[in-house]
Design brief:
The chain is an alpha/beta fold. The protein is 51% helix and 13% strand. The protein has 11 helices and 5 strands. The protein has a 5-stranded parallel beta sheet with strand order 2-1-3-4-5, sandwiched between helices. Helix 3 links the parallel strand 3 and strand 4. Helix 2 runs parallel beside helix 3. The longest helix has 15 residues. The termini are far apart.
Length: 220
């Protein structure tokens, strides 16, 4: 069962998402919050698998809520998905750096919304190749935070290859096909790379891959 926390300051938005999720046998909405501070409290109380978080809220906004959830070791299993009104909200990159697993546009089709929840619950990043390209240009257009370049040298050749393929938007199954290995081995390479690079999930791995220069836009 996928446990979901809904976080949005608009009750109508929350009720709409809940109506969709409640129809699914494998998804359960465990709580709702109207701001980021309440979201953190409820995340600690319920330990959801997914927190769907609006990016603009009163009291504590979605980026700060994401940062606090990501920084709490007791909430390591919570995948934050940012909800935005725009295809590339100006705050999305900051949210990914804060620890978000990806983002969804609020007018997404119901079937795509449900698929995204399941994808995030598996630990995969919600970054389609087209979205990744736009993210790349944002990464390159503004000053990047300090990236531990030397940490890249700790990766094995296969781990580096897996990171590059993640940054290009490939799933574990697609990475396995490209590298001619099993999906489990592909997942192992990706997970070991995340551990060595100190990133929380695949979304942060994508950001780091471009900010570090491991992958460049013309390679996508």
């Amino acid at each position: 069962m996928i446990r979901v926390l809904l976080v949005d300051d608009q009750p109508l938005i929350r009720s709409g998402f809940r109506a969709l999720l409640d129809l699914e046998d494998d998804i359960e909405v465990v709580a709702e919050a109207s701001d980021g501070r309440e979201a953190l409290e409820l995340a600690r109380a319920h330990r959801p698998d997914i927190a769907l978080v609006d990016i603009q809220m009163p009291v504590v906004d979605g980026i700060e809520a994401t940062r606090r959830i990501a920084a709490d070791p007791d909430l390591a299993g919570v995948h934050v998905v940012i909800l935005t009104n725009y295809g590339m909200d100006e705050y999305v990159l900051d949210a990914l750096r804060a620890g978000a697993a990806g983002f969804l546009v609020k007018d997404v089709l119901p079937e795509d919304f449900l698929h995204a929840v399941r994808v995030a619950a598996r630990g995969d990043a919600l970054l389609a190749p087209s979205i990744t390209r736009r993210l790349i240009h944002r990464c390159l257009a503004q000053p990047a935070p300090a990236v531990a370049g030397p940490a890249l040298t700790e990766l094995t050749g296969r781990e580096r290859e897996a990171v590059v393929l993640v940054a290009r938007g490939l799933s574990n199954d697609e990475i396995a096909g490209r590298m001619v290995i099993s999906p489990l081995t592909a997942k192992t390479h990706v997970n070991r790379a995340m551990t060595k690079l100190g990133v929380r999930d695949r979304a942060q791995l994508v950001v780091l891959a471009y900010e570090s220069g491991l992958v460049t836009p013309n390679e996508v």
